[in-house]
């Protein structure tokens, strides 16, 4: 029995309201995670006329959106922050596009202040911390304002899921179930309220893939135009969206017989889609169309500027877009220190993302996913594009993710979660409703119990968040989000000073006026009396083995901060 459309709309709205209610307290209580101050400050500088250089490894769109409310605030730069922004001061070292960190004079002997090729990474991170937390502005109000925009984007993803499943199945119950899987997904709640690039690209990619599915069902100029526009928006949110190109190729190849298009017509559609995509990118980058300046070959090679960039430089317009793409690809090739199942690696593991996804998902969701995948495989030949596109897109995306050496967070898989909710939703008509209902209730209970600390959520199969540090760290678990909770813990117990090894923004610690002495593992060995607080992402490093193996913590703050009374 189907509820009427009016009632379905109210239920869907109610589910989205619940999602907002679940995220708002987390947005208020979570302190700034590692990247949030950088993105918030970068977006604000872009709106106020500065060039796209603060975080060039990410497109401007995902940084400008959460910064919109900041334009309504009376914000100022401190003297130190302004000196950084205007290039009067900077770090003594430079990070190349690809290669080792060295003194900046080795890479830029003629000066770096106005050199377009200088990667303003360390300065942008410090500038963001100063802008938000040096006391000049109300940092908590700024962060909350930006996070409210992100929450709205997370609700937008829910709308895409709802309308996609309803269009594919014609069943409101299935659409509501798909939406509920997103609303009560701990990863969506964890990253849906943070000022990062992940939720914006998730919304844009979900919309783009949906519009591609509509095109495959009805290949018209209008549908491919809309798909191209959405693709352009996605590429302005995060360079992860470059995976849309191979996803589209696979989808078109597997839908070739259904489309029955002549090569000439297919070429026309491809040109329309590409033109729409590039038009969006050019419009947003309108003030920055001048090609990158030439660079001597020896200096370009030293900086690790890729050969394709050097060769095609005069044609790469807008240059900032291609610079960000080159930096992202270089990062993926160079690797990033990561942690999995008690081991550390700079080159990562090919199986990281599947394992991390399972560890970070409720058991009920994984069971539903397995059942829905079985239904899809069994009935694949009878499926329409709206039903098979999400599964194929997930397969391509995950395959490409597994080739990356950057293994620091399941958040990089966030764009596949709504696609999986859609895939499950499309399969629900073929699954026993009581089974679906029971598994949904299970997921709702498990996710609600995590309120409001969603970031360290870990599957109940491995003991939940309490044991999470044994399996995953960084943005999967401990990303510096619990400084506010640490402040409350110390206040409740009258602790006036701590020794601290914190994985997060030190400016936030100072902003909260937490009296602390920063220590490393070797320095901590010399402490004879006092309180020692160590973040999980630090404690699990080899140099801290002497502490974690010798004594249990006296307290734990929100799972991620280990407190020892010495």
How would you characterize this protein structure?
There is one protein chain. With 566 residues, the chain is mainly alpha-helical. It folds into three domains: 31-137, no CATH class; 148-286 and 315-448, no CATH class; 482-565. It is built from 27 helices and nine strands. Strand 3 and strand 4 form a beta hairpin. The longest helix has 31 residues, at 139-169. It is globular, with a radius of gyration of 24 Å. The termini are far apart. The mean pLDDT is 95.
Topology:
Elements: H1 5-29, H2 36-47, H3 61-67, H4 79-85, E1 93-94, E2 102-103, H5 104-107, H6 121-133, H7 139-169, H8 172-183, H9 186-191, H10 198-217, H11 221-235, H12 244-254, H13 256-259, H14 263-284, H15 297-303, H16 307-312, H17 319-334, E3 338-340, E4 343-345, H18 352-359, H19 363-378, H20 385-401, H21 416-427, H22 433-449, H23 483-493, E5 498-501, H24 506-511, E6 516-518, H25 521-524, E7 531-535, H26 536-539, H27 545-548, E8 555-557, E9 561-565
Parallel strand pairs: 5-6, 5-7
Antiparallel strand pairs: 1-2, 3-4, 7-9, 8-9
């Amino acid at each position: 029995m189907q509820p009427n459309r009016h009632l379905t709309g109210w239920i869907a709205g109610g589910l989205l309201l619940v999602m907002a209610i679940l995220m708002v307290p987390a947005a208020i209580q979570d302190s700034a995670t590692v990247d949030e101050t950088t993105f918030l400050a970068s977006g604000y500088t872009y709106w106020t006329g500065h060039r796209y250089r603060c975080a060039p490894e990410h497109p401007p769109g995902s940084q400008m959106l959460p910064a919109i409310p900041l334009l309504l605030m009376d914000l100022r730069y401190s003297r130190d922050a302004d000196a950084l922004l205007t290039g009067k001061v900077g770090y003594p070292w430079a990070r190349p596009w690809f290669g080792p960190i060295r003194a900046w004079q080795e890479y830029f002997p003629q000066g770096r202040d106005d050199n377009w090729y200088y990667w303003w990474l360390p300065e942008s991170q410090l500038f963001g911390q100063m802008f938000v937390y040096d006391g000049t502005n109300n940092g908590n109000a700024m962060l909350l304002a930006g996070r409210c925009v992100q929450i709205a984007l997370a609700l937008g993803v829910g709308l895409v899921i709802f309308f996609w499943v309803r269009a594919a199945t014609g069943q409101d119950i299935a659409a509501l179930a798909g939406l509920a899987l997103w609303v009560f997904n701990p990863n969506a709640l964890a990253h849906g309220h943070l000022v990062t690039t992940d939720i914006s690209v998730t919304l844009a990619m979900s919309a783009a893939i949906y519009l591609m599915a509509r095109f495959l069902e009805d290949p018209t100029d209008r549908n491919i135009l809309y798909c191209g526009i959405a693709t352009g928006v996605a590429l302005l949110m995060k360079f992860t969206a470059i995976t849309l190109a191979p996803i589209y190729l696979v989808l078109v190849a597997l839908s070739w017989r259904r489309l029955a298009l002549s090569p000439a017509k297919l070429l026309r559609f491809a040109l329309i889609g590409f033109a729409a995509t590039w038009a969006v990118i050019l419009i947003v980058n309108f003030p920055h169309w001048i090609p990158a300046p030439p660079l001597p070959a020896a200096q370009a090679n030293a900086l690790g500027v890729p050969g394709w960039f050097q060769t095609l430089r005069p044609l790469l317009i807008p240059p900032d877009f291609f610079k960000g793409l080159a930096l992202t690809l270089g990062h993926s090739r160079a690797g990033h220190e990561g942690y999995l199942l008690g081991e550390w690696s700079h080159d990562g593991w090919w199986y990281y993302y599947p394992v991390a996804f399972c560890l970070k998902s409720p058991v009920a969701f994984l069971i539903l996913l397995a059942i829905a995948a079985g239904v899809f495989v069994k009935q694949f030949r009878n499926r329409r594009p709206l039903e098979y596109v999400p599964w194929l897109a997930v397969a391509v995306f995950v395959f490409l993710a597994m080739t990356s050496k950057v293994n620091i967070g399941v958040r990089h898989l966030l764009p596949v979660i709504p696609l999986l909710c859609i895939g499950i939703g499309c399969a629900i008509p073929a699954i026993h409703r009581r089974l679906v209902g029971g598994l949904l209730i299970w997921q709702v209970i498990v996710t609600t119990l995590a309120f409001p600390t969603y970031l360290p959520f870990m599957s109940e199969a491995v003991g939940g968040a309490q044991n999470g540090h044994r399996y995953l760290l960084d943005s999967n678990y401990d990303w510096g989000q619990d400084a506010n909770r640490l402040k409350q813990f110390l206040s409740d117990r009258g602790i006036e000073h701590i020794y601290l090894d914190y994985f997060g923004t030190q400016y936030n610690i100072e902003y909260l006026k937490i009296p602390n002495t920063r220590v490393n593992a070797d320095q901590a060995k010399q402490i004879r009396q006092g309180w020692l607080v160590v973040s999980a992402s630090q404690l699990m490093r080899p140099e801290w083995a002497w502490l974690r193996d010798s004594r249990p913590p006296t307290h734990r703050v929100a799972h991620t901060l280990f407190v020892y009374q010495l």
